[in-house]
Amino acid sequence: EAGVAQSPRYKIIEKRQSVAFWCNPISGHATLYWYQQILGQGPKLLIQFQNNGVVDDSQLPKDRFSAERLKGVDSTLKIQPAKLEDSAVYLCASSKWDRESSPLHFGNGTRLTVT
Amino acid sequence: AQRVTQPEKLLSVFKGAPVELKCNYSYSGSPELFWYVQYSRQRLQLLLRHISRESIKGFTADLNKGETSFHLKKPFAQEEDSAMYYCALSGQGAQKLVFGQGTRLTINP
After folding, report:
1. How many Å apart are CA B77 and CA B106, to the nearest integer?
2. Are B95 and A101 a contacting pair at CB < 8 A?
3. Which among B43, B92, B95 has the least Cβ separation from residue A95?
4. Chain Cα centroid distance, residue B87
5. A54 touching chain B per CB within 8 A
6. Minimal Cα–Cα distance from A101 to chain B, Å?
7. CA gap B4, B79 in Å, rounded
8. Are the beta carbons of B44 and B96 closer than 8 angstroms?
9. What confidence score (pLDDT) does residue A101 get?
10. B103 touches B10 (CB < 8 A)
11. CA distance A101 to B97
12. A77 touching B, CB under 8 A?
């Protein structure tokens, strides 16, 4: 099966600029996640979608971050305006939805550098 | 609150030696525990999960609820085991994964 696709792979922007990341999950996976991984740390969940509804966005900085998953398939994550501390790898993952916790399948990530 | 602690950021062992990567967790209910691995230039992927009770690539992990631990073990390390390892926890049925900070394992020849 095709894996989780993310683009772009790398992005360099200046602080206060805007940036958007795109994710295409594995076909048939109802659940989609965006994680932020700062250098030297483990991934931190930003937002979780179930189809096109938000399940958990408790750790999403909503004053600058937004995400959507129209039609319950692709998703975009946007940062506006970016800060230096947003420099990180942004990982998208998807999983099936069933009674047991299905494993997450990760994309390659987008490495964001804010200067 | 869910929390995962991996006390070692770096771990280095020689090929053929036993390896143990430590993971402790904090969760008030019945957790589901996972180990994820990221090899060089590859994406993060599932290594094993406690409910499967299986050995993957020679690795095993036992959930110890009394000690709230889920340590990853392998009796004889191989060079290809060098990677970044993350312990992760999910609340039962919640599917939200909380990750530890990771341990970089290096196997020396």
Report:
1. 10
2. yes
3. B95
4. 4
5. no
6. 5
7. 27
8. no
9. 63
10. yes
11. 9
12. no
- At B52, the pLDDT band (50, 70, 90 cuts) reads confident
Instruction: State chain B's mean pLDDT as an integer.
Output: 92
Are the Cβ atoms of B43 and A109 closer than 8 angstroms?
A: yes
Q: Does A9 touch chain B (CB under 8 A)?
A: no
* Side chain identity at residue A48, one-letter code: Q
A95 at the B interface (CB within 8 A)? yes
SS3 sequence of A25-87: CCCCCCEEEEEEECCCCCCEEEEEEECCEEEECCCCCCCCEEEECHHHCCEEEEECCCCHHHC
Instruction: Fill in the amino acid letter for A39.
Output: L
Q: Please choose, from the candidates A61, A74, A66, the residue with its C-alpha nearest in 3D space to the C-alpha of residue A6.
A: A74
